[in-house]
Amino acid sequence: MQKALQYRDWLSTTTGGGATNPPPGNIRTGDDDEAIVKKLVTENAVVVFARRGCCMCHVVKLLLHGHGVNPTLFDVDEQNEAAVMNELSKIITAEEGSSATGANFPAVVVGGKLLGGLEEIMGAHISGELVPRLREAGALWL
């Protein structure tokens, strides 16, 4: 039988310099955050960029899990916030032109395009646009 690691124990093993695999769906390294953000956005159907302990980020994750979507989660902390925000701004600028206002957390990327934060996700959910966008991105099959 395998021993389950507490989350705080897993954090101490990943920051101690040892090469460990992160749990499925969660990616957290501090090496080159801008390259990781770009790779996550291009390779995954749904990515949630969230601050640790943020209640709005938790609500977005619960909403997506409630729909049966298992998004890739990227925890943003104070050390990598600027790099992640810079890369997300580049993604927004490439999509919408130079008039983009910037991203806030939580930031949800669906199908390689920034869908938005909590307000945009909830608005899409209420209007019925969220499920078709998730299907189009390949996050839902039914």
Automatic annotation (TrEMBL):
GO CC entries: cytoplasm
Highest taxon listed in the record's lineage: Eukaryota
Location relative to the cell: Cytoplasm
Gene3D superfamilies given in the database record: Glutaredoxin (3.40.30.10)
Domain Glutaredoxin, chain residue ranges per copy: 46-114
Stretches that traverse the bilayer: none
Keyword Signal included in the entry's annotation: no
Main location: cytoplasm
Keyword Cytoplasm attached: yes
InterPro entries tied to this protein: GlrX-like_pln_2, Glutaredoxin, Thioredoxin-like_sf
Keywords: Cytoplasm, Redox-active center
Listed PROSITE patterns: GLUTAREDOXIN_2
Family per record: Belongs to the glutaredoxin family. CC-type subfamily.
Protein name: Glutaredoxin-C9-like
